[in-house]
Amino acid sequence: QQPVQSPQAVILREGEDAVINCSSSKALYSVHWYRQKHGEAPVFLMILLKGGEQKGHEKISASFNEKKQQSSLYLTASQLSYSGTYFCGTLSGTYKYIFGTGTRLKVLA
Amino acid sequence: DTEVTQTPKHLVMGMTNKKSLKCEQHMGHRAMYWYKQKAKKPPELMFVYSYEKLSINESVPSRFSPECPNSSLLNLHLHALQPEDSALYLCASSRSTLNQGNTEAFFGQGTRLTVV
């Protein structure tokens, strides 16, 4: 039931783009995206609600395809500060908020 | 103040010890959460409190006992833990339960627990 993210890991050079996907076997009604740096707490990036999308940051955007039960996070012109592990989050039952499997992103100078 | 504060940051305890983890927020959030995170894994939901009442217990062993004394505080009491319980324990809060879908969770920095 845990959303599956792909790729599991990705290495980029500064300035390159990346796409992270989050797929669920169950219907998605909303999707959150978080980034967690090593040894730190997850930090909220953005939320996508059913029927639309919201952009949380410049150069980081996301889409939400309800029919495909999938969300994608787009990182453009990556910066060193983008390094970390990205998680999608969603509801699996009442109050039960769970995270996807995670994608480790490393940006090299 | 948009912080969730967790104490202690690090904790080493023996298998016979009793200890508590504390979490505090002053954002007026009415939902609070405990997650357990192992290295290179996503956070796993343990407990959810909504309006100071326990809403979710994800079949967590009884050696973990949550407590929500008031709307700003969340404790996790630990007793007779096992070495495999060593992990990062994260507390989070949200304006309402994430059940509504249109609210985000704010996370504390976590307590890194080592059971010896």
Mind sketching the topology for me?
The complex is a heterodimer of chains A (109) and B (116).
Chain A: E1 4-6, E2 9-13, E3 18-23, E4 30-36, E5 42-49, E6 60-65, E7 70-75, E8 84-91, E9 97-99, E10 103-108
Parallel strand pairs in A: 2-10
Antiparallel strand pairs in A: 1-3, 3-7, 4-5, 4-8, 6-7, 8-9, 8-10
Chain B: E1 4-7, E2 10-13, E3 18-25, E4 31-37, E5 44-50, E6 53-57, E7 64-70, E8 73-79, E9 87-94, E10 105-107, E11 111-115
Parallel strand pairs in B: 2-11
Antiparallel strand pairs in B: 1-3, 3-8, 4-5, 4-9, 5-6, 7-8, 9-10, 9-11
According to DSSP, the number of beta strands of chain B is: 11
Strand percentage of chain B lies at over 45%
In the predicted model, the low-confidence regions of chain B spanning at least 5 consecutive residues are: none
Radius of gyration of chain A, in angstroms, nearest whole number: 13 Å
Which key terms come to mind for this protein?
heterodimer, A: 109 residues, mainly beta, B: 116 residues, seven-stranded mixed beta sheet, four-stranded antiparallel beta sheet
Provide structural commentary.
The complex is a heterodimer of chains A (109) and B (116). Chain A is mainly β and 109 residues long. Chain A is 0% helix and 53% strand. Chain A has strands at 4-6, 9-13, 18-23, 30-36, 42-49, 60-65, 70-75, 84-91, 97-99, 103-108. In chain A, the strands form 2 sheets. In chain A, strands 2, 4, 5, 8, 9 and 10 form a 6-stranded mixed β-sheet that branches. In chain A, strands 1-3-7-6 form a 4-stranded antiparallel β-sheet, with no helix packed on it. In chain A, strand 6 (60-65) and strand 7 (70-75) form a beta hairpin. Chain A starts with a strand and ends with a strand. Helix content of chain B is 0%, strand content 56%. In chain B, a hairpin with a 2-residue loop joins strand 5 and strand 6. The termini of chain B are far apart. Chain B is globular. In chain B, strands 2, 4, 5, 6, 9, 10 and 11 form a 7-stranded mixed β-sheet that branches. Chain B has a 4-stranded antiparallel β-sheet with strand order 1-3-8-7, with no helix packed on it. The model of chain B has no long low-confidence stretch (mean pLDDT 92). Chain B is mostly beta strands and 116 residues long. The relative contact order of chain B is 0.33. The A-B interface holds A 2, 29-30, 32, 40-44, 47, 49-50, 87, 89, 91, 94-102, 104 and B 4, 33, 40-43, 45, 48, 50, 55-56, 58, 90, 97-99, 101-110.
